[in-house]
Design goal:
Rossmann fold, alpha/beta, single chain, four-stranded parallel sheet, five-stranded parallel sheet, 11 strands
Length: 393
């Protein structure tokens, strides 16, 4: 189903549901302090409860969010932008690509989307080369890792075509990082998360913190670990960091790879049978939830006691939460904001400036908080209005 190049760039799997630095220890460490500065404790009484309450409050409020840039250089007129979508058949990829197109057209540029088709047949590289051949001024790639398009990026540079990536990994980050940067620029998600790798680690940590807070510091967890991938490694490392401070938590890691992606339901069902004490399930990507993890939970004889937290908060996943169909929570991420940030980054590159942080963050979404009545996760601020103001539009 997937091309060989997906072995290093499965980022489009973030979207493919409509879209590691080793396994988590089954043991745990003593309590400590989270990156947000909240003291973590698994003590389910007194001060421990207060700490957990504060932690869940921060996750719900989206304390990680900043604000978009308040000013930008003058927008150069008449530019042509080529957008490489990770796959228009996938709702997450489509959302990001359409957001870039919307933002580019907002500033008066011509924008076209090339369907990367989840990299089938090397479509990522083909799209980049098509953009160069079409004499575009710039190419923006979405959830496409540098490792899959090294040579096309060099060809773009030689042709004088600027390249900007968002939601992906340049060649100096991720699994097997070579130390070289081949994109002209990458979106900086936030001050605290200068790369997509750091942003994804923070999201993995938030997933662990949600479990710790909702379980009151007492949890036996099945963690699905997406092995051998940039995104999977970052999310797993973040989860391990987040759960390390929970002395009352134990983690049962279950590996999944690109070759076993279609076996997710069986993997989760088997893990639940092997660990009858486990009542919490951590799934790194919404696409893996849709690939079978939700079915495993919904079909379990223990389904009433199981709680599953997934990934990005895509529309079909939020429908599962609304309907009580095997998913209970997600870590909502503003994919459309990421797309607008890519255009802001490009405006600055055209002006010879460095990109500045986009203010991206995340929030946990469950039946108690941040679950919209319909549709996808929505960021807690009008980032479009903020960017229009900064761009003078």
């Amino acid at each position: 189903m997937f091309s060989k190049t997906w072995r290093r760039n499965p980022l489009a799997l973030l979207c493919a549901g409509m879209l590691a630095l080793g396994a988590c220890s089954s043991g745990t460490t003593s309590s400590g302090v989270t990156s947000s500065g909240v003291a973590s404790s698994t003590d389910a009484t007194g001060e421990g409860n207060k700490d957990l309450d504060k932690l869940i409050d921060e996750l719900i409020k989206g304390s990680s969010y900043g604000v978009p840039p308040t000013a930008a250089p003058s927008v150069p007129p008449g530019k042509k932008v080529w957008i490489v979508s990770c796959g228009q058949s996938a709702i997450g990829c489509q959302t990001g690509a359409e957001a870039v197109k919307e933002a580019a057209e907002t500033v008066g540029w011509e924008a076209q989307i090339c369907d990367g088709r989840l990299n089938a047949g090397g479509a990522f590289a083909q799209c980049v080369r098509q953009g160069v051949a079409a004499r575009q001024d710039a190419i923006i790639t979405e959830a496409v890792d540098c490792s899959d398009i090294r040579q096309p990026l060099r060809e773009a540079k030689a042709a004088g075509v600027l390249t900007v990536d968002f939601w992906g990994f340049d060649c100096d980050t991720g699994v097997g990082a070579s130390g070289e940067r081949l994109f002209t620029a990458s979106v900086i998600p936030a001050d605290e998360y200068p790369t997509n790798e750091e942003y994804q680690k923070a999201i993995g940590q938030a997933r662990a913190q949600w479990i710790m807070a909702r379980s009151r510091g007492r949890a036996s967890i099945i963690e699905l670990v997406f092995k051998g991938t940039n995104i999977g490694s970052a999310l797993h490392e973040g989860f391990a960091t987040g759960i390390a401070s929970c002395s009352g938590c134990k983690v049962h890691p279950v590996d999944v790879t690109l070759s076993t992606f279609g076996d997710v339901r069986q993997l989760v069902e088997s893990a639940l049978l092997r660990h009858p004490d486990a009542t919490w399930v951590s799934i790194p990507l919404d696409s893996l939830v849709l690939a079978g993890a939700a079915q495993a939970v919904a079909g379990s004889p223990r389904r009433a006691e199981l709680q599953l937290i997934g990934g990005e908060g895509l529309p079909p996943n939020l429908n599962l939460i609304r309907g009580g169909q095997g998913q209970n929570a997600a870590v909502g991420q503003p994919i459309d904001w990421y797309g607008w940030a890519a255009v802001d980054t490009l405006i600055r590159v055209f002006a010879g400036q460095n990109p500045i942080p986009a203010g991206l963050g995340f929030q946990t979404v469950d039946s108690r908080a941040n679950l919209p009545r319909s549709g996808p996760y929505v960021a807690p601020m009008d980032f479009r209005a903020a960017y229009r103001k900064a761009w003078g539009r």
